[in-house]
Amino acid sequence: MSGAATGERSALITLAHVLEPGDERWGELVASWGAQQVLDRIQRGQTGHAHEEGVRARLAHVRSRAEDRWDPEQDAARVGARIITSHDREWPSQLSALGRTTPLALWLLGAADLRLLALRSVAIVGARACTAYGEEVSRTWAADLAGEAWTIVSGAAFGIDAAAHRGALAAGGTTIAVLAGGVDVPYPRAHAPLIDAIADSGVVVSESPPGEQVRRHRFLSRNRLIAALGRATVVVEAAVRSGAAATAGDARSLSRPVLAVPGPVTSPASFGCHRMIQEGEALLASHVDDVRQALDLTAASSSSAVQERRTGRDALPAREREVLDAMPARRSMSLDALVVASGRSPGDVLAAAGVLVAEGWLVLEADGWRLVRR
Amino acid sequence: MSGAATGERSALITLAHVLEPGDERWGELVASWGAQQVLDRIQRGQTGHAHEEGVRARLAHVRSRAEDRWDPEQDAARVGARIITSHDREWPSQLSALGRTTPLALWLLGAADLRLLALRSVAIVGARACTAYGEEVSRTWAADLAGEAWTIVSGAAFGIDAAAHRGALAAGGTTIAVLAGGVDVPYPRAHAPLIDAIADSGVVVSESPPGEQVRRHRFLSRNRLIAALGRATVVVEAAVRSGAAATAGDARSLSRPVLAVPGPVTSPASFGCHRMIQEGEALLASHVDDVRQALDLTAASSSSAVQERRTGRDALPAREREVLDAMPARRSMSLDALVVASGRSPGDVLAAAGVLVAEGWLVLEADGWRLVRR
């Protein structure tokens, strides 16, 4: 990373401590001026943002907490977390769909690579006050999809969310929990063991720094992250106006498929799902196959979309180029075979393949990776 | 009725004894030549229909059953039934939507006027092997709609059908049962008391003569009658390939709205409903209000359609003209008020109003009849 890039990255992380997640106006300023410029102008009172004064006060407060030099990376490491921004390899490319509300930085807790997981992921969300029926659907569909290497994204809440995470874990799959507070502030508290288990094999994600408590409006901005990280969003049970319905709305505005699971018309927990289907805001999902089909369609369209964005072969880093060169022309190749063919370590191959998928060179299939034909 | 019309009517009734219901080719011949001509040509072996010989044999057999002169009206009267054809006032005008599969004649058992009931009717159908949930939805929605003077049309089968009829009766409403055998052959047998109760206030309908047993293929041709008699069809629970799904298909081909009630995705009894919604073959009905809305739309479109067909005021029979003259320009008028205003008996007013609705002069609303404005 160049010095300028390091400066931008560090400025993004600083801003992530003091700006409210999902504020479009700040996002616009960061996009136009860069994070460093925005920081400077906040200090000089030149952003024109209505909340500038409060932000400047928060900035002074955050920096004053450190005894000598303020180091967010160290703060993160203290709770076992790492920080990523769009300047880092692990940054999921699909977050760019959020435009002006793209997060400035993310705090991650967990063993897995967020970018790699997010490339093959599906959000399963729903009511906290769910029924046994909804819980069963959430758990079994999550297990089925996780068993096919789909990562289940959800919000760690009671009810449908927890059932989705648990289904994925029970199937030996991976799952991503997006929290509304810091990654070291498990919420709800009763789910601390669940959130620990998620971090053991998957990733716990937050756009708030460690120690940050959940606040009401952050649940809504958190929902947009769940929608953006999933290739598609499945709503299992939802009241008519609910967080899950909001997540579905976010997914729609990102042009991601939204599916809703019907239930008894006598069950208020299904009213929101029925409404979404009636209004044409969601497809009816009557079987996990309907989710698979929606995901297949997005995989096809997203690989053709990123194909246009991909960089030239020669511009790739050595590791990625070597893995790419080892790929056969038409067949797919498993991790083990790629390790042998490339002479790279499994960790290297996994990381390189993640980058190559994100940049449209490879697609991840059930039995390994395959070259995308031009 | 003129002598020629009487002859046609009688020929239609005779044909209804010997042709299979819903045969398009016979329907075409009757439409081109008239029923009397078709009868004559069957006798002379000149119809060109592949089944002509069998029909001729059945004709000889039917006529031979009578000791002196064969009289279908008497046969019907013997079981308390009446026969109607398109030459009779009680013939529901919406059956013409069936085109070549329009029934030749109908046998009716019951106190009410079929034409009048069918003008404000909705079909509720579904699985025999239904769940307690489906039964509850069928019963309560039928009761709600019947309580607003909508007639519930169904097939008297076990499960959803029976629940719909029972809901209508419990609400003090009227209901129509369309049977696959003769009106004196209650099927299933266990529903003989239910079918009796339906005839007490509503109508039991069949296109087969008395004594005719149910046969497998007649259930399918019976379903098209249910679809044609209802302004809209609601499927409460249905397996993927089922009689209820077939009825829904019939309603679609008649351009009548089809609604399907979702249920748990874990319940096979709801699979057909979910499939229909997914394929765009049915609207999702999550509340009886969704059915009301679909019916309001059809009432609006059908009254504008018949408006164009209506005959001149001077061509109306005296009874209808007198009732029409008694109608206020803008307000609706109840039966009691119309009896006073027209000086006719309640029976006369009811019959006349039925004709006037069918011919587009009046619309039937919750509180009575109202003039259709040109």
Give the structure's gist in a few sentences.
Chain A is of the alpha/beta class and 374 residues long. Helix content of chain A is 49%, strand content 11%.
Kindly describe this structure:
2 copies of one chain form a homodimer. Chain A has 374 residues and is an alpha/beta fold. Chain A folds into 3 domains: 1-70, no CATH class; 107-296, Rossmann fold (3-Layer(aba) Sandwich); 311-371, Winged helix-like DNA-binding domain superfamily/Winged helix DNA-binding domain (Arc Repressor Mutant, subunit A, Orthogonal Bundle), CATH 1.10.10. Helix content of chain A is 49%, strand content 11%. Chain A is built from 16 helices and 11 strands. Chain A has helices at residues 3-18, 24-33, 35-44, 52-65, 72-78, 114-119, 132-146, 160-170, 192-201, 216-229, 243-253, 271-278, 288-309, 318-325, 335-342, 346-358, and strands spanning 82-84, 106-109, 121-125, 151-154, 175-178, 203-206, 233-235, 258-260, 283-284, 362-365, 368-371. A 9-stranded mixed beta sheet of chain A has the order 1-2-6-5-4-3-7-8-9, with helices on both faces. The first copy, chain A, has a two-stranded antiparallel ribbon with strand order 10-11. In chain A, strand 5, helix 9 (192-201) and strand 6 (203-206) form a beta-alpha-beta unit. Chain A is globular. The two termini of chain A are 30 Å apart. In chain A, 50% of the residues are buried. The A-B interface holds A 133, 136-137, 261-266, 270-271, 274-275, 277-278, 283-287, 290 and B 133, 136-137, 261-266, 270-271, 274-275, 277-278, 283-287, 290.
